[in-house]
Known about the structure:
By secondary structure, the chain is α/β, with parallel strands linked by helices. The protein is 38% helix and 13% strand. β6 and β7 form a beta hairpin. The two termini are 23 Å apart.
Amino acid sequence: MIPISDPKSQLKPVQDELLKEMKDVLLSGQYILGSRVYELEHDIAKRLETKEAIGVGNGTDALILTLHAYGIGVGDEVITSTFTFFATAEAITRVGATPVFVDVDEQTFNIDPYKIGEKITASTKAILPVHLFGQPAEMDEINHLARKHNLIVIEDACQAFGATYKNKQAGALGDAACFSFFPTKNLPTIGDGGMITTSDSKLAKRIRKLRAHGSYKKYYHDEIGYNSRLDEIHAAVILICLKYIDQWNERRGRLASRYDNGLKGISTLRLPYSSKDSTHVFHLYCVESNERNRLREYLKKQKISTEVYYPCCLHLQKAYENLGYKQGDLPIAESLSQKLLALPLYPGLTFEDQDYIITCLKKKVCE
């Protein structure tokens, strides 16, 4: 099978560097919040041009810690997209707040900024846009709304490391941002890892306390916190991957262009849209088809893996049935959940395999 993603192939060219660093970490005896974590925090903050970067256990924890550090909790509302991975809303619920779901733009699949305003209430404390599939949300309008209503903007940039919006890096477009280093992400590690970026030094200081059981000084705890610290082994891996991220993202972009060129003109397939204001890093390449399930079964028989992102919008999840949303409330996202299909795309995908995928797709959709 041609896989939908293949982190092993992405890391294979740098495995000698990785093994050397892993050995060095092993021999150092320093495994949690050591020198490599601090080096990584420094390098990411420098790259994104933020004052601070804080390494944490995973992308979900990054969201939870950021919301908590801002004092968002019971009785508060956070506006976010309904069309994203569950963790975005889960983090809001975990701190006791209520997610308020908004429909998406039919081209970018990101939260529609022009539908946010109607959801703002006296209880709204933050907007949490998601840079879905590697393309930044429309941040100018989101930030304008936030300033107008005195709201916090937290970017869910978990799928978008290296993406830009109007020449600024994703992760430096709001008040704070959250990243995931899950193995299939553009910037990966060999397990879980996360990062929070911000230029608010006071916020960063509190997050550093919260990630270590609410403690600045060992055995002295100012508040109830979390155990969410980035391990040295993951920091070592990410530091190496950081050297290659631009090369890998460029490869993703080239593969996306080859899909665009190979599949253009097929009326039954709608290809991904890339905004002129953004650099899309194609964490995923999703096509839209009214015959998605039939197409997926066909490709499976041709030994081509695909995936559905996402088959059920957040406002229709059983976990949120208490919020009272119903089918038809957010129609664009609901339609996408029935039509989008992700094709294989990762830096190690060969042109030969991609050409085979394109040939199979053209043969099926043109029958």
